[in-house]
Amino acid sequence: MKIAFFTNNYKPFVGGVPIAVENMAVTLRGFGHRVIIFAPQYDPEVPPEEDVCRISALTNFNESSFVLPLPITLEAQSYFADEEPDVVHVHHPFLLGSTGLGLGRAMNLPVIFTYHTQYERYAHYLPFNEMMVGEVAQQVGWKFANCCDAVIAPSSDIREMLLERGVTTEIRVIPTGVELARFKNVEKGFLRQRFGIGADETILLFVSRLAHEKNVGFLIESFAAMASKIPDSKLVLVGEGDAEEDLKKQAAEVGLNERIVFAGRLDGPDVVSAYVDADLFVFASTSETQGMVVLESMAAGCPVVAVDAPGVRDVVVEGETGFLLEEGDVEGFATRMVEILTDSDLHTKFREGALTKARTLSLARTSRRVESLYKHVLLHRRPRRDEFFLMLKEVFRYQWNKITEGIDEIIP
Prior knowledge:
CATH topology of the largest domain: Rossmann fold
Number of domains: 2
Mean pLDDT: 88
Strand content: 15-25%
Low-confidence stretches: none
Oligomer: single chain
Radius of gyration: 22 Å
Largest sheet: 7 strands, parallel
């Protein structure tokens, strides 16, 4: 098969979606398929890559690390048409995702949509009213899904959410898999050597963007609550983001700036080495569709303590691979961290459970399920409606509703 991916985020941007898109593309190519990726151009100096079509974009949109892809060029449209793909797979419901849907419909191709992101949780990145952006994002998400031939939900929680919002298109739960080979024969010691962490010190690890929606402040609170019980422990935060300075201030305020390591961005083998060095992985985000970094840590045999939230609870099995705590339960989170780190038998049990769970979600297995879905939609495609200017329509609908609500208040 020849498959066209459309994504608003791709390397060199670091995040769950770019990693998922690249890993799936590489694996599908390994199965003998050709995958062409339409993605934003981040930097003119980024070297060209085979089967990656870069689209001009506005960088550092709204002073963030995100980019805003511009309308696709005629040259890119011609490239798409000339390649004659069999299937279109879009990874967002707007911008290049909408472009992919439109081009797919123009050539009468089946379109698959992966719902990677709870977009309403990222409304603060846009220079508009957050309430409006959140509502519009929800409406666009499920309406766009109903324009496609099938939807991939990375977790059962996201599937239930989409059904509740009105998605009638077939939804399949297919997690983003983890490439197990990356975690084999990795030597320990990278984090200790790079950041001067002693051989006898315990490492608690977090990997993700240092953004407000990732709830990293909660992890610092929880670490502060348990720090005296395990005095030789350090919390290592891997990532960059707009919340970094606030988090550094918080670390200083709780008197732990010497024990909280801001490791910055780590790429490729360095991230894997960080997972391997960790004694415990901690995660508190409630905005995930799937805890990809959680699964990666488990592939390295690392037990997990996380906030019980959508996406994550499909990966972490309570009492088998780690513990899940309610959002805001600082003392409970701290207690569970101490419990795992002071009970060697429990740590070993969770380590083995994490490795077993990761094997069930290998990239090869999950990509085969995606491949099967492609074949299914090619055989059983049903007519789907087109939806032009969906984002604009929803913005106007929101504004009209607000106007009519205001009139109702004035004129009962």
